[in-house]
Specification:
This protein is α+β, with helices and mostly antiparallel strands. It has a domain of about 90 residues. The chain contains 3 helices and 7 strands. The strands form 2 sheets. A 4-stranded antiparallel beta sheet has the order 2-4-5-6. It is elongated. It comes from Maribacter hydrothermalis.
Amino acid sequence: MFAKITLVFLSIFLVACNDKDDSSQQDCSMTPCTQNFVTITVSVKDVSGKAIVLDSYEVIDTQTGENLATDFNGEEYQYSKEQGVYPILSDANRLEYQNKTTTLTFKGYISNEEVVTEAYEVGADCCHVSLINGNTEIVLE
């Protein structure tokens, strides 16, 4: 009987003395990652399925107020925009969002008029960014 009681107290003691700090960043130095480069995109179409080309758009990090769309204004994204596909977050931003989540707001403009606003919950692990919640197929009427 004494052994069982000792075992219970020892178990409780070991669990209580766990010095692991769950709030710290995960060490990613030994994490194997694929060589894929992930970009989260949204598509904007009309009700007939035709791509909507926005004059401009913003991707605002609601916590910092930073516009992430400035990262996607190069020539490599021009074809996507012509197809109505707009990047909102990529692995280039992974370190900023690693092991946490945030809300991004996508705003699209035509003739300086806001025609779309959508919210997205995103995050990143040691390797890639990910979409947690949000509508990636936007249909404008």
